[in-house]
Amino acid sequence: MATEISLPVLSPNDFASDQEVRWCPGCGDYSILAQMKKVLPTLGVPPERTVFVSGIGCSSRFPYYMNTYGIHSIHGRAPAVATGLKASRPDLSVWVITGDGDALSIGGNHLMHAIRRNLDINIILFNNQIYGLTKGQYSPTSPLGKVTKSTPLGAIDNPIYPLSVAIGCEATFVARSTDTNIKHLSMVLKRAAEHRGTSFVEVYQNCLVFNDGAFDYATERDQKVEHTVELEHGKPLIFGKNRDRGIRLNGMNPEVVELGRGISEDDLLFHDERLPEPSLAYLLSRMRYPEFPEAIGVFRDVDRPRYEELLNDQIAEARKAKGDGELAKLFSAGETWTVEA
Amino acid sequence: MATVEKPIRDIEEATVRFCGDSGDGMQLAGTQLTNTSALLGNDVATLPDFPAEIRAPRGTLAGVSGFQIHFASHDIYTPGDTVDALVAMNPAALATNLSDLAPGGTLIVNEDEFEDRQIKQAGYLTNPLSDGSLDGYQLFRVPMTRLTRLAVAEQNLGVKESDRCRNFFAMGLVFWLYDRPLDPTLRYINDKFSKRPEIAEANRRALRAGVNYGETVDAFTSHYRVRRAKLAPGTYRNIMGNEALATGLIAASKLSNCELFLGSYPITPASDILHELSKFKHYGVRTFQAEDEIAAVTSAIGAAFGGSMSVTSSSGPGIALKQEAIGLAVMTELPLIVINVQRGGPSTGLPTKTEQADLGQAIFGRNGECPLPVIAARSPADCFEVAIEAWRLATRYMTPVMLLSDGFIANGSEPWRLPNVADLPTISVEHPGALNEGDTFRPYARDERLARPWALPGTPGLMHRIGGLEKQDITGNVCYDAENHQHMVHLRARKVANIANDIPEQTVDGPASGDLLVVSWGGTYGACATAAHHAQTEGQAVAHCHLRYLNPLPRNLGEILSRYRRVLVPELNRGQLRMILRAEYLVNAVGLNKIKGKPFVVGEVTRKINELLKGETNGATNGDGFVPTPTQSPVSLREGLQGD
Ligand SMILES: Cc1ncc(C[n+]2csc(CCOP(=O)(O)OP(=O)(O)O)c2C)c(N)n1
Ligand code: SF4
Q: Would you place residue A35 in the very low, low, confident or very high pLDDT band (cuts 50, 70, 90)?
């Protein structure tokens, strides 16, 4: 008979540090911070076993506001810092906080490799389609034509889409949410934490100062029902104020259709998070406003061995096969000879 | 048919070089001769020389690979200035290596490869074997290809496979010439080719054929013996620099009870540290081949935060990439070992050649006021101790430590006396435990050495955040305050400077004062020590001072420098240590600077010593023809300091 062990009940405040939060008033980062503090106490991991790792950017100040362990590292490198930490300390719950510039410009390489290794970490990318901390240059997610300080005549480089990148690297968990949809965001963060493997979450985040309203279509009360479609496992993709429109597959291509007049729910695309092939998730990540409603929710949630487990299994097996390494043996490896006194 | 025993002559030392095409197995031949000589009890030192290309076209000058070994019945510190016996497997090898053969030296060539096409390919207009150009040497023309094919004929191998046994024939001949036993090589063959018995047998036969050739052919009139050296009593093995580094790192991990994490990205000549450590998973070693050097160092920083003994290894170009992250480790005050196995630079430079031109990068190569301890290994076996010392400093002072090696040390080898495990000092590493009720944790509070606590995630109550933004003293909170920044910059500098009190005082070999002090660091140790020793035996007042610690410098170094009339700093760079010594001590140090991708030979240092003692050169020249302007004289340096 198991005895009940009473775990201390944690509250959001247990995860709040004593540091003054320094984002611009109205910044979307506040909301993400608040949801994180709400979700963490529900996970059963105490603050001392939680570590936040970030790069550089407004979003990357996040760890300072959490009463957990934290590293505010250097620009773009948070996934690599987290990799070393998680590989050597699998007992810790490791979160990476990053921005669109941090993760996809300077740190693109590390992001890609962290995802393919599938360590059990959670990467939360705050996408505000702008460089906030350096005061408003365009970022790799800024749309074509975006006018900023560094693109007075409009951006001419094609943007990249964080989820498409992550799915291209065969991320085992991929999701999207928005800063203002707090219930949805909490759900997504919790699901990310529960997934074993690298969870990649894109959060649409409003930069009030340098890119205000970039995601209004997906976050404003009357617009979001028309321009987003909430993914639910096993359910058809339906959206619209009157839930009268859906996504249907036409060959390899998705199309928006009106329900009724010969088209029923059964004709729609049904979401399946668990498909081993990433193609559907990729296709969903390509649905973009204004041609399509943009998908929010969990795109993909599959299981694959985690790097730190494989690494630590190799160590355990080597120890089993060869015995715990002894220094004397190490020193005298190969051919030795003795010089008498 | 019994052959007459040929006379054997005792000699004190010999330097032998095998050279041939990179596919000819010259590294193997050199390694076998090295191990055999070491097992015989000789002191040995080696110098492999790889081509930059993996497989340059056969027979070309670019494809020549060499391996030099110096073995002796007394202590030696270098792989030898000139070669006593050169084995050249083809014309290209002869062309690129002949200049290092001593006048009158033994020259063994595979005459079968001296066909017109190959001779031309090597840049010769006429056949050097017959045009008289080799008259100054004892030339032995050996038809190695034919003899090897004959020796292995019964194994029914193809021509290519038969020819691959030629290096064993060459080894056999050299083993006969220097009276070396075959057993170690026969054991190697059994091990290596256990799955291909026909190849094993062919190699054995080729080896014996080489020995028999020496024994029977009249041209070889005598052979040599080099008796065992009087090494300190103990058990020895032959060890290469990178191997010794890896071994030292594992030892440090055990001695400190921290599991080892290596984040690394392949680069010549540092890759073998990654390869070597990857073999030792059962010692709890985690190796992580990262996507680039930046991930290599930052993953190591992540692991350091988690409590691992963290190491990152690379060479110059990779270290350049790591520098921003090393700054993060300085700011976050985490222990970390950064290994730089230096190679010829700048940029991709000379990947397979040695140089010491990253001292500046080690000491000054980061943004901001960013000091860290820098130490350097002096020889292959010394890497073991230096690795342990690096980790001792890193943990006692909570700082990244830069450990410098170089291509010459990394691939060179020498006998290593196995330490007694029980005699190795433990490295005590402490992590603070959970706090008492009501206490607050101060991540940037300091102990008497100015080190901050190494608090590990997982410890209740010690949650804290570190990062690259300036930290408030004691609390570790982000702080932009002007006074605090100045204070912290000085604090970090003082912490590193204090290490001078925790390292041995500098010693010198030779007279405590005199006419000349030779100051060296890193892999030039052997050449400088030998040259200074020669000078001393000739009665010259010359001493040698070899620095392991480059930052901070030993606290008595300034005083030592002041006791000699002149100071000579030989370096494989344009004078990086010399510049530091001049700046630090206002000493009029002179340089001997060679930047050819090759180590010093003793003769070069000796010549410079003699030149200086005779007062032939202006003391201020620095070896590459550059004459400093008056602003570099001690007086104006002092003036330059006034704005401090
Ligand atoms: C090596 C380096 N290069 C450049 C910078 C300057 N920098 C700081 S943050 C940033 C971009 C941040 O953009 P993003 O990741 O989108 O984060 P946000 O501030 O928008 O949250 C840049 C270019 C830096 N800190 N380090
Ligand atoms: S600049 Fe933008 S992203 Fe940065 S804190 Fe202000 S509102 Fe937020």
A: very high
What distance in Å separates residue B26's CA from the closest CA in chain A? Answer: 21
User: Which tokens belong to A243?
Assistant: 């839930």
Q: Give dist(CA A38, CA B580) in Å, integer.
A: 55
CA distance B312 to B245: 12
Using DSSP, state whether B190 is helix, strand or coil. Answer: helix
> Is residue A254 predicted with pLDDT exceeding 90?
yes
pLDDT at B87: 98
**CB nearest A325 (choices: B282, B288, B295):** B282
pLDDT tens digits for range A278-308: 999 999 999 999 999 999 999 999 999 999 9
> Could you give the CA distance from residue B276 to residue B93 in angstroms, rounded to a whole number?
30
Residues 6+ apart with CB under 8 A from B189: B168, B200, B203, B204, B207
3-state secondary structure of B174: helix
Per-residue pLDDT at B56: 84
Taking the C-alpha atoms of residue B484 and residue A320, their distance in angstroms, rounded to an integer, is 52
Residue A24: count of CB within 10 angstroms of its CB: 14
Those residues of chain B that have pLDDT short of 70 are 1-4, 616-644
* Percent of chain A residues topping a pLDDT of 70: 98
pTM attached to this predicted model: 0.93
B181-211 tens-digit pLDDT: 999 999 999 999 999 999 999 999 999 999 9
Contact between B355 and B216 (Cβ < 8 Å):
no
Q: Is the peptide bond before B269 cis (omega within 30 degrees of 0)?
A: yes
Q: Is the pLDDT of residue A259 over 70?
A: yes
**Ligand 2 geometric centre to CA of B520 (Å):** 53
Cα(A40)–Cα(A33) distance, integer angstroms: 11
Helices (H), B142-264: 144-151, 159-163, 166-177, 183-192, 197-216, 241-256
> Would an 8 Å CB–CB cutoff place A340 in contact with chain B?
yes
Query: Beta-carbon neighbour count of residue B54 at 10 Å?
Result: 8
Pocket of ligand 1 (CB under 6 A): A 56-59, 75, 99-102, 126, 128, 130-134, 139
